[in-house]
Amino acid sequence: MSPASEPAFDGKAFVRTLSTSPGVYRYFDADDELLYVGKAGNLKKRVGSYFLKPRMEPRIVAMVSQIARAEITVTRTEGEALLLESQLIKSLKPRYNILLRDDKSYPYIYLSGGEDYPRLAFHRGARNLPGRFFGPYPSTYAVRESLNLMQKLFKVRQCEDSYFRNRSRPCLQHQIGRCTAPCVGLIGREDYAVDVRHAQMFLEGRSSAVIDELAGSMEQAAAALNFERAATLRDQVAALRRLQAQHHVQGASADMDVIACRIESGIACVSVLFFRDGISLGTRDFFPRLPLDAEPADVLAQFIAQYYLERPVPRELVVGEALEDEAILAELLAQQSGHAVEIKTRVRGERAQFLQMAERNAQASLTQRLASRQTLGARFDDLQKVLGLDEPPKRIECFDISHTRGELTVASCVVFGPEGPDKSHYRRFNISGITPGDDYAAMHQALTRRFRKVAEGEGAKPDVLLIDGGAGQVAQALDVLRELGVTGIEVVGVAKGPGRRAGEETLVLADSGREIHPGSSSPALHLVAAVRDEAHRFAISGHRKRREKARERSVLEDVPGIGARRRAALLKAFGGLAGVEAAGVEELMQIKGIDRGLAERIYAAMHP
Predict the structure, then answer these.
(1) Residues 64 and 12 sit within 8 Å (Cβ to Cβ)
(2) Where is the GIY-YIG domain (predicted)?
(3) Are 383 and 418 a contacting pair, CB within 8 Å?
(4) Is residue 414 within 8 Å of residue 538, measured between CB atoms?
(5) How far is CA 377 from CA 82, 352, 408, 506, in A?
């Protein structure tokens, strides 16, 4: 009998115990690994379709043959079931579900709150600061362009608070007409608040209301014979009108996202065009992980549920395929967002043109992905031959070290698979407790911290471990793996060739000590070099961030009794850290709140 007709557990008996309520069901295999999460308007009917139908799709047959047990969660409505299904898929990542791999947080424009002179800034990460967040934007480029535009139109400051508080004269942004210099009092609090309000209205999509307000203010200024002010407002209105006209030609006439999907050779690409208040914010492509034989409509339904249920959703979603649960999904998104949401699949005119554009983008990105995947696959196959492996590696890790004369050493670990870099598994290690400049000790510490978890049964083990360096660094890797009892990893050193020329690298095999010179035309060496260069880039960027953070840290922060207020007062009074360093104890005592004892501690800290 086939596995489908003889499942791993008695599916028919399980179905008889179910109610007709809506809910979510989960299937597990014999190792208790989650296979699939699904939602149902009628649990008995939906789960029964897996075990009572005489014929099923091959992917369903493959999954059902592995089911060892099942669980259900009953919900009040089908909408709640859809929401729970989406949350479980994102958190548990079942093998047979369509998974949206999009761990990177989205950029926002941040307007600070609780200040007399708020600032606009780029923001990525948790939105727990006081103030307002506008977005999300599809790319950092879209945020940077918007911030650049805001500086020209409304001149709201974008500098850091520490920089703002310690200015004694206007900065370059004021001199080139992009800031009104609130730091030195060249604009009053009320006038600045008006600029902030206009910027906020513009970011909310109310550009027409901003134009109307500015036009009214221009007329009032002209009537009061304040022609200079009127001319400034006239230029601002003209710039806004030009921008509005330009963007309405390029964009749509509504807040909407246009979504298309293309599938080929087991890879799906979902392309999204973002429009807000008639302004095109650009596009973004997604490559969700697919189960076997997925259809574009399935991918789009899962994409919308997983993507929009945690993000602001526009009033319109134009989709390239009819969705099975379109009405339920639209209702749930409306409840989440607080406004009506329409999902449209049959469109004409402007929307049809945008949908065609999204479809072309999806196809072009998919073609490019397939081409790069084929190239990458050939490189992995060649690496198998060069290293003499039984099969192509599925996971490659590479370590590198970066420091400046031994200062603030950082080790990087990057991960590559058959589909390219897996950035969600990249890691950096801040190295401490070693002799400055001892790269062997740094590598030993980083590898120990990484593979201790593997030895404890946590985390994935690489098939190939690349070490940027020769025999000495390879020996460190072997020592660590031996100490931790980790086996089954092919350790390879990547030593630079004569004159450090690209394409002449030597691969040092740890198990035999043999050296291989693949040559500049070798696909395997191209792969190794790409992974090594990515590890190098990741290590350098981490070291630079650590170095910049250390340099930004003031010596005053380490002085007991000096908090943020006193530190700001000192820097403002003496014009910066150099001025504090040049001041004597008596001069330091002139600052409010600093007595002789504290002044002496400050002086001692500045003159070690």
Answers:
(1) no
(2) 20-98
(3) no
(4) yes
(5) 37, 37, 37, 22
**pTM of this structure:** 0.60
Over the stretch 422-473, which tens digit does the pLDDT of each residue have?
888 999 999 988 888 888 999 999 999 999 988 888 878 999 999 988 888 8
Question: What is the gyration radius of the CA atoms in the chain, in angstroms?
Answer: 30
Model confidence band, residue 238 (pLDDT cutoffs 50, 70, 90): confident
Measured CA to CA, the distance from residue 351 to residue 362 in angstroms comes to 16
Task: Give the separation between CA 110 and CA 282, rounded to whole angstroms.
Answer: 19
Residue holding tokens 């992974």?
Answer: 531
User: Which has the closest alpha carbon to 186: 231, 235, 195?
Assistant: 195
**Furthest-apart CA pair in the chain: how many Å?**
95
**C-alpha to C-alpha distance for 510 and 518, rounded to whole angstroms:** 16
| Coil vs helix vs strand at 548 | helix
Query: Using N-to-C axis directions, what is the helix angle for 140-153 and 227-250, rounded to 10°?
Result: 150
Q: Which long-range contacts (CB under 8 A, 24 or more apart) does 144-152 make?
A: 146/109, 146/203, 147/109, 147/120, 147/121, 147/122, 149/243, 150/109, 150/120, 150/199, 150/202, 150/203, 151/178, 151/179, 152/178, 152/239
Angstrom distance (rounded) from CA 135 to CA 205: 11
What's the rounded Cα separation, in Å, for the pair 187 and 113? Answer: 18
> Alpha helix locations (H) across 438-584?
439-455, 471-484, 523-552, 564-574, 577-582
* Whole-number Å distance between alpha carbons of 270 and 238: 38
Q: Which two tokens stand for residue 563?
A: 């908090």
Res 3: pLDDT: 43
Tokens representing residue 98 in the block: 């369509």
CA–CA gap between residue 195 and residue 193 (Å, rounded): 5
**Contact in structure between 474 and 467 (CB atoms under 8 Å):** yes
Instruction: Report cis status (omega within 30 of 0) of the bond before 518.
Output: no
Identity (one letter) of the amino acid at 273?
Answer: L
**Residue 571: closest CA among 161, 181, 179, 172:** 161
Which residues are registered as beta bridge partners of 25?
Answer: 38, 72
Give whole-number Cα distances, 150 to 49, 118, 121, 145, 524, in Å: 56, 14, 11, 9, 48
Taking the chain, what is the end-to-end CA distance rounded to the nearest angstrom?
A: 83
Contact 138, 109 (CB under 8 A): no
**What distance in Å separates the CA atoms of residue 370 and residue 368, rounded to the nearest whole number?**
5
Q: Which two tokens stand for residue 175?
A: 């001199």
Question: For 350-402, how does the pLDDT look when each residue is reduced to its tens digit (9 = 90+)?
Answer: 888 889 989 998 998 888 888 777 788 888 999 999 998 989 999 999 999 99
Helices (H), 323-348: 326-337
